[in-house]
Write a structure and sequence with these properties.
Layout: H1 14-27, E1 38-46, E2 49-52, H2 54-67, E3 72-84, E4 87-99, E5 113-118, E6 121-125, E7 128-133, H3 138-144, H4 149-155, E8 177-178, E9 181-182, H5 188-203, H6 210-213, E10 214-222, E11 226-229, H7 230-242, E12 249-260, E13 264-276, E14 290-302, E15 305-313, H8 315-329
Parallel strand pairs: 1-7, 10-15
Antiparallel strand pairs: 1-2, 3-4, 4-5, 4-6, 6-7, 8-9, 10-11, 12-13, 13-14, 14-15
Helix pairs in contact: 4-8
Length: 331
């Protein structure tokens, strides 16, 4: 099914819709234009909780743009896929650079600059966002600006909605239907590939199978603006990622695949990790209490294997959950 142009009107392509709207709000400070981009009852799911309605989006954007007036975001890639006649899902990877101009929840400006990635996921229908999932590498921002991630996490408040960050059960098979609705039956084998990657490495703990999914010279860009290389580095990172939560269940919640002559084949995944902090004490003394992570991964795929992965999740929010539990336990 061809996507109806009214899905991204008045722009010529879905990519231009995403890139131009993002610049209008963040580069040009067109905060007042936000209601023209979202439905009134939009649902925005983030690591610290869920908001409903466009007013919280406007208020939050105004505050953040005021605190970071010169922070610049560059759209690295937009992976989109249709979800109906006039509906599509967009995974927009953004590289941010810049400093802090005014006081923020992190503290006063320090004069430092930070580099980080955001990966908002937007479900768009008839030119308006109806649901959004947002993750950013906040650890890289906080540390890069010269603040203490532990202190920031200790001051943060995570309010998980009833039923968790997604507030609904995981899709039965995201290859056919995910959080954003039924997928078209295009790029099915590629969608199965990334689903199987998660189910094999993270679900079955078959870290020895990294080489089945990643190429020899593959690169992973992950939280804290860290980069690891080659199959051994990716294997070690997967071990470290799960080790604090040894009983974790990792769910693939949504998949989008897109191919273009300019960028080749890319796939994006919206995922959830749920487990107890009962393993490697990466975030201080273990609590044995549940932790939930929402994240996004983008993959560049060549010759049937991943050549590059970009993984984004709010690690500061993970630490905030753990610190809050420690307080409740009286530790």
């Amino acid at each position: 099914m061809a996507l109806d142009p009214r899905a991204y009107a008045p722009y010529p392509t879905p990519e231009e819709y995403i890139l131009d709207w993002t610049d209008r709000i963040w580069a040009d400070a067109g905060i007042g234009a936000i209601p023209g981009m979202y439905v009134d009852d939009v649902i925005v799911r983030g690591a610290y909780g869920t908001s409903i309605g466009v007013d919280p989006v406007v208020r939050g954007s105004l505050a953040k743009k005021s605190a970071f007036p010169d922070r610049i975001g560059v759209g690295e890639d937009v992976v989109w896929e249709e979800r109906g006649e006039s509906r599509f899902i967009s995974y927009h990877r953004v590289l941010h650079t810049g400093g802090q101009g005014e006081v923020w929840s992190y503290g006063a400006p320090t004069g430092h600059s930070a580099v980080s990635r955001n990966l908002p996921v937007c479900l768009i229908e008839d030119g308006l966002i109806v649901e959004e999932w947002v993750a950013r590498d906040e650890w890289a921002v906080v540390a890069g600006l010269g603040h203490d991630p532990i202190a920031v996490a200790a001051a943060a408040r995570v309010v998980l909605p009833e039923g968790g960050l997604f507030a609904r059960p995981a899709p039965t098979d995201p290859v056919t239907e995910g959080e954003s609705g039924p997928r078209p039956d295009t790029h099915r084998s590629e969608a199965e590939f990334v689903r199987d990657l998660f189910n094999t490495i993270y679900g079955a703990r078959r870290f020895d199978q990294v080489s089945s999914f990643y190429g020899r010279d593959s690169i992973l860009h992950t939280s804290r603006h860290n980069t690891v290389t080659r199959q051994r580095g990716i294997q070690n990172d997967a071990l470290r990622f799960l080790a604090p939560f040894p009983d974790a269940v990792v769910e693939v919640r949504d998949i989008a695949v897109h191919s273009s002559p300019e960028r080749g084949l890319r796939a994006s995944v919206l995922w959830r990790l749920a487990g107890t902090y009962s393993g490697l004490p990466l975030y201080g003394p273990v609590t044995g209490q549940p932790v939930e992570i929402m994240g996004m991964s983008q993959f560049e795929i060549r010759g049937g294997k991943v050549t590059a992965e970009y993984r984004v999740f709010v690690e500061v929010a993970v630490l905030a959950q753990i610190i809050s539990q420690r307080r409740l336990l009286g530790d």
